[in-house]
Prior knowledge:
Structural class: alpha/beta
Largest sheet: 8 strands, mixed
Distance between the termini: 36 Å
Helix content: 25-40%
Strand content: 25-35%
Bound molecules: 8-demethyl-8-dimethylamino-flavin-adenine-dinucleotide
Number of strands: 22
Amino acid sequence: MTERQTNRTVEETADVVILGAGPAGLTLGNLLHAAGIDCVVLERADRAHVQTRARAGFLAANTVRVLDRHGLAAGLHRRGQPHGTCEFRTENGSFRLDYGALGRRELHTVYPQQDLVDDLLTHYLEAGGRIAFGTEAQSVRDAAGPNPTVDVRDAEGRPGRWRARYVAGCDGRHGAARRSLPAGTLRHQRDHGVSWLGLIAEAPPSLDAVGYAMHPDGFAGHMARTADITRYYLQCERGTPADAWSEDRIWAALDRRMGAAEHGPLRHGRILQRSVIDLESDVVEPLRHGSLLLAGDAASLPAPAAAKGANLAVLEAELLAEALVDELSHDDSRALDRYSERCLQHIWRAQEFAHWMIQLLHSPLLNPTAGPAEESFFHESMRRARVESLRTSRTHQDWFAENYVGI
Ligand code: RFL
C-alpha cells in the first residue's frame, strides 16, 4: 500500500478495493485477505450501524458450506438454528411442508444477518484485514482500463481517492458501483406491485415453522429470528408510511390474517423496527465492466419473498474471490472472464423462484397493478390451484423444497 497527496486529495492504493461491508463485501474481503491479496473494504456507515442492521435471517445450506470452507461459520454453528418446516395458512385450512425432508433434504440455518456480518467483520479484523468505516465511495472512474480509481468522502466530507487494479462493487442497490456503470448497461427491472410492512417484534416465535398466511385482507408472514425476536410481514397498500399503523393495529391484523383464533395465539411484544418494502426485483447485466465487478445486491436485487439476497451475496463473493485470486496470483483470467455468466445462472434461478413465491402468496385481487377485474380473477383462480397443487403433489413439494433452500 502507498499513500500520497495530490493537491489536497489523499490517494491510497490496494490491488482490490471493495465497496461495502455487507455479507458480499466482507465475505470477499475475508477470502482475498486469507489468500494474501492486498485489499481494502470501504464502508459508508460506521461500525455500530453495520453490526446492528437487521435484515436477512434464513441462510441456505450452500451459504453455510461456503462459510465452512473458509473457516467463517463458527458463530452460526454455535448460535444458528437449523430450520426445515413451513406452514401455509389459507381460507381453506392450513398445511405444513417439512421441506428439510423433501427435495435435496437441505435445511436453512436461522441466523440474523447482523450476527453474520459481525462474525465476518471480527474475523477480517483479527486476521489483519483493512477497512475504512465512514468512507463513502462517490464514483468509480476509469473502470474500462487496468487502473480504476474510486473517489471517496469521509464522514467529515473530506475527499480522498483509492487507486486499484480491480474494484468490487458490493455496496448494494443504491451504491456508487451501480452509479458508475457505463451508459447502455442493461438493468432488468420488475415491480411486483406489492408492498410489505416489515416488522421486527420483541416476541418469541409463535410457531415452530415459517408461517405464510394468505388471507382476504392480504398476506402475513412469520419468521423466527432468535428465541426472543420474530420477524413479521404484513402486506400493506403501496405508499403506506412505516409509522401509519399503531402497534395495536399491527397485532390485530397479524392475529386476524395468521388465523390466531383457529391456529393458536401469537405472542405479542414491542415492535422494535418497522419499514415498508416495495417488492421489486432487478438484475444488472453483465456483472463485469472492465475492472469493476458487481456482487450481492449491487448485482441483483431479488424481492425478499424468497430469502435469496444474502445467500446470493455469499455465493457470488466466493466466485469473485476465486476469480480474483486466479488473476492476481496466477495470472489466469479465465474465471474472471466467466464470472458474470456463472453468477447470472444462479441469479435468474433465484429471481424465478422469488417471482413464483410472490405469485403464490399474494392475491392479484388486492393488487391495483394486476390489471382488469376478469384478468385478476383468472390469476387468483390459478393462484389457488397452485396452492392446492403444492398441498397435494409430492413432486411439486420436492420442487418447492429444492428451490426454497437452494441457491
Ligand atoms: P448490503 O447488506 O446492503 O451491504 C452493502 C453495504 O454497502 C454500504 N454502502 C456503501 N459503502 C461505501 N460507499 C457507498 N457509496 C456505499 N453505499 C452503500 C452499505 O452501508 C452496506 O453496509 O449488501 P450485500 O452485501 O450485497 O448483501 C445483500 C443482503 O443484505 C440482502 O440481499 C438481504 O438482506 C436480503 N434479504 C434476505 N436475504 C436472504 O438471503 N435471506 C433472508 O432471510 C432475507 N431477508 C432481506 C430479508 C432483505 C430485507 N430488506 C432489507 C428488504 C429481509 C428484509 C426485510
